């Protein structure tokens, strides 16, 4: 009787996950905030053994080229810029790829983007048609719940990760502010937009400086004045004109240069009306610089949150945060916890 040889075959190895983040390059140049945000997520995923890459393209037509080059398993389209009718074409060209449109804004900001809900509805319909090929993702739980509940969508939650905070090696908080010194430097960075609330924060910074008899240097970014926000910059300039205080307008720089700028500030302000995460605020906190924000910064310590439209509360929180480095430490712990949770969400979805 012939003896049949039994050959044990090894199960096929699972295909290595490769994630490609694709951003749109705007006319004003690189999307510094979005690019830094995606780079942090990519580094966090790489720490878990996943290949990841971040690229910028000029338009929809360059997506195919980047996907062909990198051969990813997952493509994350960052923000709303790819026309819905492009996805059937891309899915046909790359049938093994999972496509994700990742929303970066809560409803108040989306309301200023005329095509936002129209496109999201079309993405939803395409996701149903191309099951397990196209997904809507949100970087904040509130907008995810609102989209799923109101539009009957099945969006997934893929939040931001401030990767430097994951190992807990923060920079030591600055010592309490010396109220005997003559000057104070306040950073209120980010694109000029209505919901960023720069004017109210500038007023509060001036009130604080006047109350404590100090010369204020108030730092902002220029070069990206969005959503018809030219009047905001004009009012900021007028506010400081003829005062002993100084408005410093910075262009957009690399993240390394930006961190050096932050470290030279005594305190940061990010009391926005709408946020899903706020990378600028995380930069301040990670590097040990006090920050006053709004309740929109969910990871920020309670003692550092102020009422966005109440200058008296902003002034009060500026003073208390300058005095108490422990508030920075509390936010640093929150930032790490948020990142750890978010990384787990990403890993669970990618491996699911």
Task: Write a structural description.
It is built from 12 helices and 11 strands. The protein has 352 residues and is of the alpha/beta class. The protein folds into 2 domains: 141 residues, Rossmann fold (3-Layer(aba) Sandwich), CATH 3.40.50; 169 residues, Rossmann fold, CATH 3.40.50.2000. The strands form 2 sheets. It has a 6-stranded parallel β-sheet, with helices on both faces. Strand 8, helix 8 and strand 9 form a beta-alpha-beta unit. The radius of gyration is 23 Å and the shape is globular. The N terminus is likely disordered.
List keywords for this structure.
352 residues, alpha/beta, Rossmann fold, 2 domains, six-stranded parallel β-sheet, five-stranded parallel β-sheet, 12 helices, 16% strand, disordered N terminus
Task: Give a short summary of the structure.
The chain has 352 residues and is an alpha/beta fold.
**SS strand fraction:** 15-25%
Q: Which architecture name of the largest domain does CATH use?
A: 3-Layer(aba) Sandwich
Helical residues, percent: 40-55%
Please identify the structural class as seen in this structure. alpha/beta
Provide the number of structural domains: 2
- What's the arrangement of strands in the largest beta sheet? 2-1-3-4-5-6
Largest sheet: 6 strands, parallel
- State the end-to-end CA separation: 47 Å
CATH topology of the largest domain: Rossmann fold
Query: What name goes with the CATH superfamily of the largest domain?
Result: Glycogen Phosphorylase B
Mean pLDDT: 94
Radius of gyration: 23 Å
Helix and strand pattern? EHEHEHEHHEHEEHEHEHEHEHH
State the name of the first-level CATH class of the largest domain.
Answer: Alpha Beta
Unreliable residue runs: 1-7
How many strands? 11
Shape: globular
